Amino acid sequence: AQPPPVTLATVKMPSYFGDIAKAAKDLLTGSVNFDNKASLDAKNVADGLKISGSCVQKGGAGDPTGTVKATYDLASDVVAETEVGLPSNKITASLAHSGLLKGLKATLSGNPQDVKTAKLALQYLQGSVGLKADLTELTAGAPKADVSLCWSEGDLAAGVSGSVDTKAFPDPAALPGKLSYAVQSTGVVPDSTVALALSDAFDTVKTSIVTKVDKDTTAGAEVVYKRAKGTATGSVGLSKRFSAACTGKAVVTSPLPLNGAAAAPVLTLQTSGDVFANTTGSASVQVDTAAKYKYGIQFATKV
Q1: What's the mean pLDDT in 276-301?
Q2: Which of 187, 196, 130, 180 is nearest to 155 (CA)?
Q3: I want to staple 239 with a disulfide (CB 3.0 to 4.6 A). Which of 73, 81, 151, 249 is the partner?
Q4: Which value, in Å, is the radius of gyration of the alpha carbons in the chain?
């Protein structure tokens, strides 16, 4: 039987810049994790209160670290969150308000013990336009700004992002070294989603295609080209849903033989699924041609 076509009815077009080319990102690197991690999410601990905790062993080695996070709905459009890192006892708090203006969400976050860490994040979604802006170093009098814009219409989407350090002002000569920018576009063609991205001041060119093979199988490929170095890396991936409770993927990534570069494929395997009631598990392993490998196993429980 033929799979359902990839159309606007089966593909969610991007709302924000970071969602562009997300189909390839999800296929090739999504859910791949080489840390050992266990997490617990408890909803409805009290009216409007959620508590979660996690324990992580980075890279599968060393001493584990953890976090404990509490999220509280102060109102229907106001959410407060506090997270404590262990054993560092580092505190991060945030306050998000989504009722200031239709389509706008504003989040103020940082370490309450260090005002220099304050960050203001704005995201605005209205019709076919999605806008995000992150402002940091607010107390320095010359904040850094990361701004992105996405436009989506029909089966096409395009976006632009930029980052500027306002310390460059008012000296225009200093601006080029304090400015970075990127553009991306994506579109839906029969059975496939294609994307093109230019980043690092257009030095990095990335193109990808993701195809729905059948209702349970997705395949895709991506090429990343560095113009200044004249080097390129290619990736191909295949994802399959084996059952309602289990999925798996295989991805091969390698430098492409350009300008004397030699192929050196790296294989990544990942699977995830239900382990027991309220708990999902995920495992990733990666091995190269020298038989060097790394892996990570994660368990997530929600109650």
Answers
A1: 95
A2: 187
A3: 249
A4: 22
